[in-house]
């Protein structure tokens, strides 16, 4: 199955058989004081730089989230989307919990974006899916509903089924729904990793869709987080994740190694090229 | 005998052994140990874990494990306190929860554990808590402190709603309000009329003491 995303100049195809497509997570003020303040002031230079840096680091798609306290997302999201489109060529993932902000961003976007996100909640399905359909976008479906994020695999998989079914009923093709099985910290509950990994495997097996995942939550509250993050991302990709939302500069080497191990990198071309780029950058320092 | 049970209970908490903690709590009741003394010992144990967490020597799973062991023993001892009519002293009563629309629990639970360790009586309402539920609990438990968490910018304004609701019910001045969570800032806390904010769980404990002047 293929999910095609486009910008004005570029197409990115996410394939269920890989290679892994990387969605850059860094244009998101959550937990970032400097970016929050810049967005509150309407200073978008930092956003522009983050966009360029992430694409240089190998991001295939960029997530754009402007949800800082006291920010009017309906005004700022379309504005930031324009700035990012101007700075880089890659397709974007429009990330907001505010349907009105999403709609305004969809209107200014050139191409076919990814909408982040819809959940299994009726209110969310009713508000987000019509927007996705109208603007011919693709959408990320989160496996949570009114009761929160289920802590068992069956319930998460059932929500994924519900989202895909509802989207198809509305005329959104299945390949334009990407499922996120949601990562919780193994620091708070050691079953959290197993539950998300098994959910990923089942969603891939039963629905055959592309899957995304945010990786860094997995290690919250633990030391040496990058070790856990990298291990998790490898396992998640192996089980069916095809387009994780990540800090690209940090995890790309591990992702390329995983793709190589899964037979998705002929003659190890991508892996070696990334190595050479790192070497070159080292020398320039 | 007494010290054997009490030291064993402390050890069980520090080793995250929920089963042993519950068994020793039952034995403490059978042997008619002073339940207040037992409770105090448990508090000392969880505080040691909390302090080590605050210093960065221990990690989130350590805190979760110790809190699990504490929770396994706590109801048994609390029941005994109630039965014997012993008077329990605490620093104060806290009602805590994550606001409506928000299901993030880790930070809120950490704060509750550390407040319990410090000697507060904590009523953790859980996540996705509506304004009226907070108000009801504050009234019911005669709380000294309300601690609210919000991790998302979409749900942060919910904290303001709770404060407004408390004002309407005439309860605002009866309770000190502290707020926290990834979406909250010092400025926001001031704007919505909270009494205090801290970005860390150990910091929240210091703040709670300060707010009630202890």
UniProtKB/TrEMBL annotation, chain A:
GO terms for cellular component: cytosol. Signal peptide: none annotated. It comes from the Bacteria. GO terms for molecular function: cobalamin binding; metal ion binding; methionine synthase activity. Keywords: Cobalamin, Cobalt, Metal-binding, Methyltransferase, Transferase. It holds the Pfam family Pterin_bind. GO terms for biological process: homocysteine metabolic process; methylation; tetrahydrofolate metabolic process. Residues 20-270 form the Pterin-binding domain. NCBIfam families: PRK07535.1. Belongs to the vitamin-B12 dependent methionine synthase family. This is Pterin-binding protein. It comes from Aerophobetes bacterium.
Automatic annotation (TrEMBL), chain B:
GO terms for biological process: homocysteine metabolic process; tetrahydrofolate metabolic process. Keywords: Cobalt, Metal-binding. GO terms for molecular function: cobalamin binding; metal ion binding; methionine synthase activity. One of its GO terms (cellular component) is cytosol. Coiled coil: none annotated. Residues 91-214 form the B12-binding domain. Residues 1-89 form the B12-binding N-terminal domain. Belongs to the methylamine corrinoid protein family. PANTHER family: METHIONINE SYNTHASE. This is Cobalamin-binding protein. It comes from Aerophobetes bacterium.
């Amino acid at each position: 199955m293929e999910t095609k995303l486009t910008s004005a100049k570029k197409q990115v195809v996410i394939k269920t058989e890989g290679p892994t497509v990387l969605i850059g997570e860094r244009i998101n003020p959550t937990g970032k004081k400097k970016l929050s303040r810049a967005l509150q002031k309407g200073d978008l230079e930092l956003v522009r730089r983050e966009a360029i840096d992430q694409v240089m680091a190998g991001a295939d798609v960029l997530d754009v989230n402007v949800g800082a306290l006291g920010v009017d997302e309906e005004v700022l999201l379309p504005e930031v989307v324009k700035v990012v489109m101007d700075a880089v060529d890659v397709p974007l993932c429009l990330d907001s919990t505010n349907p009105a902000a999403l709609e305004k961003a969809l209107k200014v976007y050139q191409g076919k974006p990814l909408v982040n996100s819809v959940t299994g909640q009726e209110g969310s399905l009713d508000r987000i899916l019509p927007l996705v359909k109208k603007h011919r976008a693709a959408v990320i479906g989160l496996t949570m509903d009114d009761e929160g994020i289920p802590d068992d695999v069956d319930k998460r998989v059932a929500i994924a089924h519900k989202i895909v079914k509802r989207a198809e009923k509305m005329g959104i093709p299945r390949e334009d729904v990407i499922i996120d099985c949601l990562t919780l910290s193994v620091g708070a509950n050691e079953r959290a990793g197993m539950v998300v990994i098994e959910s990923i495997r089942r969603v891939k097996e039963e629905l055959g869709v592309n899957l995304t995942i945010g990786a860094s939550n997995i290690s919250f509250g633990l030391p040496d987080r990058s070790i856990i993050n990298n291990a998790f991302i490898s396992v998640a990709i192996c089980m069916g994740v095809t387009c994780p939302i990540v800090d690209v500069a940090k995890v790309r080497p591990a992702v390329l190694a995983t793709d190589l191990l899964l037979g998705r990198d002929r003659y190890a071309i991508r892996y070696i090229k990334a190595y050479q780029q790192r070497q070159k950058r080292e020398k320039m320092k | 005998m007494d010290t054997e049970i009490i030291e064993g209970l402390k050890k069980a908490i520090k080793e995250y052994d929920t089963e042993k903690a519950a068994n020793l709590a039952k034995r403490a009741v059978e042997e008619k140990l002073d339940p207040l003394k037992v409770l105090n010992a448990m508090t000392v144990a969880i505080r040691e874990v909390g302090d080590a967490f605050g210093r960065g020597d221990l990690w989130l799973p350590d805190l979760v494990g110790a809190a699990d062991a504490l929770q396994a023993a706590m109801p048994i001892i609390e029941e005994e306190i109630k039965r014997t009519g012993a008077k329990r002293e605490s620093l104060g009563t806290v009602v805590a929860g994550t606001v409506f629309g928000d299901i993030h629990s880790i930070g809120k639970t950490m704060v509750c554990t550390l407040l319990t360790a410090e000697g507060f009586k904590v009523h953790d309402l859980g996540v996705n808590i509506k304004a009226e539920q907070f108000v009801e609990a504050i009234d019911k438990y005669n709380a000294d402190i309300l601690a609210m968490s919000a991790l998302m910018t979409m749900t942060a304004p919910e904290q303001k709603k709770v404060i407004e609701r408390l004002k309407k019910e005439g309860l605002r001045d009866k309770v000190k309000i502290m707020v926290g969570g990834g979406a909250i800032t010092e400025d926001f806390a001031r704007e919505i009329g909270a009494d205090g904010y801290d970005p860390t769980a150990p910091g929240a404990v210091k703040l709670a003491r300060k707010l009630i002047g202890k």
